[in-house]
Amino acid sequence: MALLTKDIIISKLSFSQSSNGIEEKVGSTLKSVSSNDSHFFFPMFDAYAEGLSAEQVEEKLKKFGPNEVHHEKAPSWVKQLVQAFINPFIGVLIIIAIISFIVDVWMAKPGEEEYKTVIMVGIMVMVSSLLRFFQEYRSNRAAEQLKSMVKTTATVLRKVSGKKELDIKELVPGDIIFLSAGDMIPADCRIIQSKDLFVSQAMLTGESMPAEKRNLPIRDAVNISPLELDNICFMGTNVVSGSATAMIVTTGNQTYFGSISKSIVGKSAETSFDKGVNKVSYLLIKFMLIMVPLIFIINGVVKGNWMEALLFAIAVAVGLTPEMLPMIVTANLAKGAVNMSKRKVIVKRLNAIQNLGAMDVLCTDKTGTLTMDKIVLERHLNIFGDEDEEVLKWAFLNSYHQTGLKNLLDVAVLDHLELHDYLKVEEYFLKVDEIPFDFQRRRMSVILKQRNGKHLLICKGAVEEMLDLCTHAFDPGEDKQLHIENDTVIAMDAEVRKKILNTSKKLNEEGLRVLLVAIKEFDDRALTYSVEDEKDMTLTGFIGFLDPAKPSAKTSIEALQKLGVTVKVLTGDNEIVTKKICRDVGISYSNILLGSELEKMSDDELKSKIDDISILAKLSPVQKARVIKLLQAKGHTVGFMGDGINDAAALKEADVGISVDTAVDIAKESAD
């Protein structure tokens, strides 16, 4: 608790949308938090260690509202029906029908009324509009049903009732919540206490690797990005391992998630299909405005019969209008939507079908779209950089025997279940002690008793920290296999150290996160192992982890390229990982642009270079949307595929926004 005294949560949790001049302030009043060690009291949030009372919760709900963000719901069926008739082309047909009714029915002599034109045009309008309405209404209902299947709760501490599971809508600032592996973070919150806490922020940042979160104070919170704060967890992210106690700081629209959502909600940008339909409609209207009056006047002057001249002018207007076109277009789009629904694709807007077909540039996020969004053990190498099964065995024994909460990297190692039986884990290795992971050491060790009675310490951790603790390394010899009994051990001199660092750097350049594995043998001794025993170890090799490409990604991209569709990657992740994934899926690249470089470029400068750039990395949500707009300004029909809130703005701006069933709600709402 002492760590929280006079601690800065954050001076300004803000993000700037410089491209369109909008700046959202998130939690600008959160400048400091003071604590009382005896009551754990935060005056700013009226919060106590034992939780909020029912009266406090009720008062805060009135002040801050429920913990939910702005989002778009499908409009009512009445509104959708009206919107189906709002179309420039339909407008032209309705005007023609009205004029035809006035001339052929209302102004006609008794018994000479003519209903054919009115009925014909009316049928075209009704069939086209109702077909569109039924298709879009059905798709929106299907999308809403998918979202309604999920209800999220959180474990909250409240006075009197103690710990209880509540709907996240009921949470308020000042609530004390408990987080564990698998939980979604229900609001922006400050970590009070944590143990091995790793949080996936991929849906906000695009980073596939989880971020470490801890309860240490941030002294320079003002000068770093909000998402880089180690003691703040953000709404919508999720816990992949570890546990924590946290205090909610902001809820609903005041959260980082909510502030982005609020800027996205609204009317979608006009797509290439909308522009095309409008262009044809306005061209017809211009023709009519010129031709119809001209023909009416010329015919009236020449023949002297103004009523006949008017009827002829209306006939010309009807002849200029392809009445069947809206119905034919809508019927074809509806057929396409039905065909796609058979492949489990929900088409929310019929116009998106045409945009999908016309698309010549597909921009895609990386994490969860090109990749599996799952960390796997990609490499296990000895100190010479050769694949070595023995290194994997040591890593497996370490991950298998540790009792601390396992993170994604341990899970990836333990996926190699075949080693369990091969190593005869329980028969040959008995766990006797453990030195758990912590953020300062960035490593963890297990101590196993072998059949010969000796103790074996197996340690894995970050490269720099581990190198400092190793005095020797295994030389696997010609057969490249490690055997603890008879392998050659070489001293960790400057040359060996340099070789290891170079191998680590090479693996990093391939987009891998690298850990080192080391061992040390002890004679049978008292179980008083501590951090001091993690020294003079023998390095066995490297293990490298990666969020791999989806198996289907490469063939899909090849098919798109054959169809003349250029694929560009727009990601919040770093360029090293992105380059590796692009190589794996067949996206060629020569130029890479980072978000920091993009921010300094004018629209004209970026527009001149954008066609030659395939990878844009470390992008903010606003920068992704800016790239989409500039590609459209160059005449491209642009699709965007993404699944996180950091993709929602781009999904909204694109001619066709594509998302997946596992995407966050705001991404599904923004997609077509």
Secondary-structure blueprint of this entry?
Blueprint lengths: L12 E5 L4 E5 L27 H11 L12 H9 L2 H19 L9 H33 L4 E6 L3 E6 L8 E5 L7 E13 L1 H4 L5 E3 L18 E2 L4 E13 L5 H9 L7 H32 L2 H15 L4 H17 L9 H8 L2 E4 L11 E6 L7 H13 L6 H7 L3 H6 L1 H4 E10 L4 E8 L4 E8 H5 L2 E6 L12 E4 L2 H16 L3 E10 L14 E10 L6 H10 L3 E5 L4 H11 L5 E4 H6 L2 H7 L3 E5 L3 H13 L4 E4 L6 H6 L2 E3 L6 H6 L2
Parallel strand pairs: 10-19, 10-22, 15-18, 19-21, 20-21, 22-23
Antiparallel strand pairs: 1-2, 3-4, 3-5, 5-9, 6-7, 6-8, 6-9, 11-18, 12-13, 13-14, 14-17, 15-16, 17-18
Helix pairs in contact: 2-4, 3-4, 3-8, 4-9, 7-8, 11-12
Q: How would you describe this structure to a colleague?
A:
By secondary structure, the protein is of the alpha+beta class. The chain has 23 helices and 23 strands. The strands form 4 sheets. Strands 11, 12, 13, 14, 15, 16, 17 and 18 form an 8-stranded mixed beta sheet that branches. Strands 3, 4, 5, 6, 7, 8 and 9 form a 7-stranded antiparallel beta sheet that branches. Strands 20-21-19-10-22-23 form a 6-stranded parallel beta sheet, with helices on both faces. Helix 2 packs across helix 4 (116-148). The two termini are 48 Å apart.
Nearest-integer average pLDDT: 78
How many helical elements? 23
The number of strands is 23
Instruction: Find the structural class using helix and strand composition.
Output: alpha+beta
Which quaternary structure do these chains form? single chain
Round the Cα radius of gyration to an integer and report it. 32 Å
Major sheet size, sense and barrel closure: 8 strands, mixed
Helix content: 25-40%
Strand content: 15-25%
| Net shape | elongated
Low-confidence stretches are: 1-39, 479-486
How far apart the termini lie comes to: 48 Å
